[in-house]
Amino acid sequence: MGDRCAAPSFVKVIDDPDEEASYKLYPFDDGMGSNLHTTAREFAEWGNLHLNNGRHRGVQIVPKEMIRLATSIQSPAYPNSTFPTNGLFWYVQGEPKAWSELGEAVPAGSYQILGNTGPLLLVIPAYRTVVVRMYNKLYNYGGDRYLDYLREFSNLAAETVRPIDNLMP
Are strands 120-124 and 129-133 parallel, antiparallel or unpaired? Predict the structure, then answer.
């Protein structure tokens, strides 16, 4: 598919910093490539749909039970307690875990999903918050510090929106 066929709202993806960015759809159905092309607003609306238990503008468009299943812990109890907990496609915060993509400042019940070219969607129900981070480059999560980078981002997001009980001493 050439650039002329891409929808005008698509954003070019940087595969190689030494080459011009291009519009690409992954040619296989193995789930390893990027085929979801969306705007930050659409991504946030998807997060908001989950935050609101499948309701969009007052209309139930996804069954509440499906949202609950997707965003609650579905992974088994692993023998290694440092492994993260997962819903259906979402990383779900239960007890903070050393190998989780979610930092320790993120409240239990929060969930996050990552995209192949760097987008990140974090939903924090306890704070009624959806956080979107858009990035459009492969191999962008910090290399060897992959988990540190993702945990730091989610911690900063959670700490930024965390309610403050009393500003006055």
Answer: antiparallel
